[in-house]
Specification:
With about 120 residues, this protein is an all-alpha fold. Helix content is about 60%, strand content about 0%. Among the domains are: about 45 residues, no CATH class; about 30 residues. It is flat, with a radius of gyration of 31 Å. The mean pLDDT is about 80. Keywords: Membrane, Transmembrane, Transmembrane helix. This is NADH-quinone oxidoreductase subunit J.
């Protein structure tokens, strides 16, 4: 027999209500935001050079822009930290068995498997 689902009131209800309230606040903020009209670039403007000048806050470009130096440096630090973390995770220690298996071309693993299969044949 099929039963109706019951609403369980408990501590898990509060985070759900908070998420719904946050969604309503964010939706109201996005829908009420006034965005300026899109603007184009002049025909003779060098957009690529302007982006490079704006990135380093030089102010020499044909297109007026804000500085991206802080964003550039923040991304730089984040990528360097990720690269160092990847190298640390990929580094092998000298006494690790998996390192010897990988560096000897799998010979030790093959010998181990061959010895195990020979001992099984003798037992049969």
């Amino acid at each position: 027999m099929t039963t109706k689902p019951e609403l369980k009131l408990g501590s898990h209800l509060v985070p759900g209500l908070a998420a719904a309230a946050l969604f309503v606040v964010m939706a109201a903020a996005f829908l009420s935001a006034a965005l300026p009209a899109p603007q184009g670039f002049a025909e003779d403007a060098n957009i690529t050079a302007s982006i490079g000048y704006a990135m380093f806050n030089l102010g020499l470009g044909d297109v007026a822009a804000e500085s991206f130096l802080i964003a550039f440096e923040t991304i730089d630090i984040l990528l360097v930290a990720a690269l160092v973390g990847a190298v640390m995770l990929a580094r092998r220690e000298s006494g690790d068995r998996t390192m010897t298996v990988l560096t000897d071309g799998g010979r030790r693993l093959r010998e181990t498997l061959t010895i195990d299969s020979d001992s099984e044949e003798v037992d049969d």
